[in-house]
Amino acid sequence: MPANPYIDEDLQALAEQARRFAPARVAPGFQERDRTRVLDRTLMREMGALGFIAPELPEDCGGLGLGSLAAGVIHEEIARADLSISYINLLASLNGQILSQHGQREVVQPWLHKLTRGEALFAIALTEPRGGSDAANLRLRVERVGDQYVINGEKTSISAADQADAVVVFGRTGTVEAGAHGVTALLVPADVPGLTRSRFDCHGQRAIGRGSLFFENVRVPLDHRLGEENRGFAQVMQGFDFSRALIGLQVLAVAGVSLEETWSYVAQREAFGKPLSAFQGVSHPLADFETQVAAARLLCLQALWLKDHGLPHGAEAAMCKWWAPKLAYDAVHQCLLSFGHGGYDRGVMEQRLRDVLGFQIGDGTAQIMKTVIARARAGRHAVPN
Ligand SMILES: Cc1cc2nc3c(=O)[nH]c(=O)nc-3n(C[C@H](O)[C@H](O)[C@H](O)COP(=O)(O)OP(=O)(O)OC[C@H]3O[C@@H](n4cnc5c(N)ncnc54)[C@H](O)[C@@H]3O)c2cc1C
Fold first, then answer.
1. Which residue of 59, 72, 294, 297 lies most exposed, with the fewest beta carbons within 10 A?
2. Is the Cβ atom of 205 under 6 angstroms away from ligand 1?
């Protein structure tokens, strides 16, 4: 990677460590896991042992006390090898931040240590069958009964739904009219009675998968609440600015490795007596994507840098989240076409295309991200729902 102002020598060394690990340990099972749809727990524990999972968490939470950029550079290297496996990093960083900032210490700390050791996988559950974009309008019922919360309803389209060991769940403790001000976040272990789960047949990201969660009188103690009652949305949703920048790096890493492989292919494959790269119709679209991927990556690093410096970065994170997945999809598409008929066979390129597509929807669509940006620039009053 060319030097840039965000990656210092320590981060570069960390990235190199992850780059030695990922091609050797993660890449070999990339296609196999797409078929079996099973996340490799051994690999997850290895990643944990190497300090690759949520290194930004404080040491007393099992992290290394590094910045968000450290999470970013590791995330890129794992995603280059397998986007589904890099979900381990994404979900750990997103949920780890939520637990460490909003959970009750004695409840969340054991979970955080398991998370960073690669012994536990967390899912996050916002989306419901009636819709995901209008997230504040969620209806999963959460009632306080004595010293417990009782949960009833359904969440859907949840990444790792059936593989997670615990879930951060957003439910309604207030009235529907209260909107975002009636939402509470809870930590729900996946083995609680009354929780059942399903798995969808996904287009991509098949090793991590998605599915539904069905809650039937699921009970968790009050101390499993994350943040304050009815304030879960405003407090806990801030974690998404972090994951949006990470998702940007994740998909751009897939685009980056695809471009690298395509450059070397078009430089050696010949047509009409010349390498394919001699034709500007082949090389210029790749050069276009090379340019845009480099620019988008800097934007993601900038968003993480702003976060590490305690500066506002919500709009930048939303920019990463709408731009990078679309760009990555278009770039991988172009790479696939450059391989001719071979690109259309079952293989790494078509799998990458399926994998990156999910992030044009997951974690919020481009339309919703652009609304976030518009609100940041024009003011919330000027951009109502
Ligand atoms: C790969 C993947 C992983 C996912 N992982 C998770 C997860 O782990 N946890 C979780 O909670 N959810 C997850 N989701 C769900 C995801 O967050 C939602 O699908 C997403 O927020 C959109 O919600 P929806 O599908 O209900 O679409 P809808 O809200 O029904 O929207 C449908 C379309 O209308 C557009 N639209 C809606 N409102 C507006 C508006 N105001 N202006 C303009 N356009 C609008 C949307 O952009 C979209 O194109 C995942 C989804 C995918 C595909």
1. 59
2. yes
